[in-house]
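[Meeting: bench + compute handoff]

Bench side (C.D.) handed over the final construct sequence. Compute side (W.E.) agreed to return the predicted structure before the next meeting so the bench team could plan truncations. Sequence as handed over:
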Amino acid sequence: MRGARLFLYSGLLLVSMAQAAIHAYTFDSPAQEQRFRKLTEELRCPRCQNESLAGSDAPIAQDLKDRTYLMLRSGKSDAEIKRFMVARYGDFVIYKPPLRPRTWVLWIGPWLLLVGVVVVVISRLSRRSAPPASLSAEEQARLAALLRKGD
């Protein structure tokens, strides 16, 4: 039994080591490496959505890093690489998408949401702090009668 556990643990260790393989990229120059790093920071992981390609460990992010590397090595410009990614994954793949009708929601949406929240908070606070309505003469007389009756 103990030998089977040891075998299982060593197998799991080997599998985890195989998954932790580091992709090493070689570049022709430090400038090319800097471009790669900048591009992978500017492009968003389609799966994680709040991480750059450089910071994501998702398989799709690794594929996109590999694609970026190959395109960079083949002489593509940063703009060409970004156009390819946008054509394939949409404007959301870029952290700063261009301002055009298709991306208005990405640019204006958060501001509209913020304004909506502020309006709701202000309206609730104003309702809560409204002075109590004054009683009419008839209501005051009824209240006085009820109070006298209770004594």
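W.E. noted at the follow-up: The first helix runs from residue 2 to 19. C.D. will use this when planning the next construct.
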